[in-house]
Amino acid sequence: MMRWQSGTRRRPVDQVNSLGVYLHIPFCDAKCPYCAFYSLSGIADEYIDAYIEALTRESRHRRALLPAGMRLTSIYMGGGTPSLLSVRQLERLCAMVCDVFRPAGDTEWSVECNPGSIDREKLAVLKASGVNRVSLGAQSLDDDILRILGRRHRVAAVLRAVEDIQAADITNWNMDLIACVPGVGERRWRKVLQQAIALQPAHLSVYALTLDEGRCLPVVTTRRTPATLDDARQLRMLRLTHDRLHAHGYRRYEISNYALHDRRCRHHLDCWSGMDYLGLGAGAVSRVGALRRQNVPDVEAYLAALRRNGDAPHADEWLTLQIRAAERLVFGLRLIEGVAIDFLQRDYALSAGPCDWPQSTLRELQQQGMIWRKGRRIGLTLRGFELADAVALELWP
Ligand code: SF4
């Protein structure tokens, strides 16, 4: 019998045979000045308990709509700060994930942790539950830079967290770093990279600092530092990052992500490759087939709705073939291996009839040295990676 997604008669989900799951934990110790993610700070324990209860309801509800034999490729618990949860809350959350989604031995299960809120006891709970990857939000290994970023933790807490991760025998771990921080020169950044490499994380995510409109680092106002680095300095910093990491065996596989011994993050890879993913929790986004669902980023509304009817308040959007093809192209281009473009003509022609887009734009980008082409595969050159946002804009229909 064919089943349908909740609230609609438009799409069967029986053909979904593999999927990644994302669980959003929207609580933080304090709000960082540059952060645009949905999260709340200063939250009481009972409130988090109620959120886990609601997340359990939503997980059961949405899992029931998917085929029983569906293969789970990855689980990602992000935030927010999942490691802010107490030992008891983490136990409860992980037990729920095991019960509802039944991860197999080869399912990648990642949890984001922040220095200062992760410890050996929590890591032991995660490991015993089946978590096999930890992502540590270090952001820097320099106390001054952490202060500039408005982070509460210091380098000593990062080093303690790394020791705890190693003691828990979680070998597949990532360290997040923020590059291009205003007021931080190349020598200082080189030192941060060197210290990170010395800790030997299996994976490094290095993001250039971006500030959405209305956000500002405290140092910018007090020391009259420019809000962000100019483009030329950003490029120099990111080139330096690439060269240093490459020299130490970290292979770039996506614009901001590097892995040692090919320990790439399956969850991210699947998202960039256009695989289906289910997002659970307040503010989480899902895309299953042509349906994109955005849960409303409002914990109060989430708790109230889940208490009432077992489904999260959300907005649905049916994606046209053209949008899906463009998304697959733009996300696929984030990967170093590029993307096979057979689907472009097929999907785009289906939705809009014969047309030269985006082939003509791709040809232009190739002439400008932004894109390489090998048979039916295209990808960004090093220059293209550096200007990836501009390339994405060119390719958006
Ligand atoms: S800890 Fe992470 S998610 Fe929370 S406010 Fe800071 S940057 Fe945002």
Please describe what this structure looks like.
It is a single chain. The chain has 397 residues and is of the alpha/beta class. The protein folds into 2 domains: 18-272, tm_1862 like domain (pyruvate-formate lyase- activating enzyme), CATH 3.80.30.20; 321-397, Arc Repressor Mutant, subunit A (Orthogonal Bundle), CATH 1.10.10. It is 41% helix and 21% strand. The strands form 4 sheets. Strands 9-10-8-7-6-5-4-1-11 form a 9-stranded mixed β-sheet, sandwiched between helices. A 3-stranded antiparallel β-sheet has the order 12-13-14, with no helix packed on it. A 3-stranded antiparallel β-sheet has the order 15-17-16. The longest helix is centred in the first third of the chain and has 19 residues, at 45-63. It is globular and about 55 Å long. The structure holds iron/sulfur cluster.
Summarize the structure.
The chain is of the alpha/beta class. The protein has helices at residues 45-63, 87-101, 120-129, 143-149, 155-167, 186-199, 218-222, 231-247, 266-272, 299-309, 321-332, 342-352, 359-367, 382-386, 388-395; strands spanning 18-25, 27-28, 40-41, 71-79, 108-113, 133-139, 173-179, 203-208, 251-254, 257-259, 277-280, 285-288, 291-295, 314-318, 339-340, 371-374, 377-380. The longest helix has 19 residues, at 45-63.
Report low-confidence residues grouped into runs of 5 or more.
1-12, 350-354
What's the shape? globular
Q: Any idea how many domains?
A: 2
**Ligands (ions, cofactors included):** iron/sulfur cluster
- CATH topology of the largest domain: the name is pyruvate-formate lyase- activating enzyme
Please give the CATH architecture of the largest domain.
Alpha-Beta Horseshoe
The CATH class of the largest domain is identified as Alpha Beta
Whole-angstrom Rg: 21 Å
